Amino acid sequence: MDIYRSCSRHFTFEMLFHCGETWQRIQCPNLPEQNDSWLAYRELATHILDPLVYMFGPPSLTYGFCGTLLRKTILANPSPGIAPRARA
Q1: Backbone angles phi, psi at 63, to 5 degrees
Q2: Which residues does 47 contact at the CB level (< 8 Å), separation at least 6?
Q3: CA 77 – CA 50 distance, rounded (Å)
Q4: Which terminus of the chain, N or C, has less C-beta within 10 A?
Q5: 12, 32, 21, 26: which is closest to 62 by C-alpha?
Q6: pTM greater than the 0.85 cutoff
Q7: What is 23-61 written as a DSSP string?
Q8: What is the pLDDT of residue 86?
Q9: Closest to 2 in 3D by CA, of 25, 23, 32
Q10: By CB neighbour count within 10 A (0-12 exposed, 13-18 middle, 19+ buried), where does 71 fall?
């Protein structure tokens, strides 16, 4: 799929995949590999984010899709600010 393509009335895939502080800093490749992931983000934008825009105005997206390279970079931070790792 095309990252610059609209996935809903108010959002493009790029807006959902290239957001967040770490991605803005490193701008690494960060695209889902599975078609189902692209479809799930389209559903999220259409059924959840678009209604929020209508009710409250455009949100500031600070977290979106997190691929392997982006996740690895985030977890390299001593205080990554994401869900804790599962215990063994």
Answers
A1: -150, 135
A2: none
A3: 32
A4: C
A5: 21
A6: no
A7: HHHH------SSHHHHHHHHHHIIIIIHHHHHHH-----
A8: 54
A9: 32
A10: middle
Element (H, E) at 14: helix 13-17
pLDDT at residue 22, as a whole number: 86
Total Cβ atoms within 10 A of residue 21: 11
The two three-digit tokens of residue 19, written as one number: 């957001």
| Tokens of residue 35, six digits | 């078609």
d(CA 4, CA 45): 14
Residues of the chain short of pLDDT 50, as ranges, are none
Q: What is the pLDDT of residue 77?
A: 78
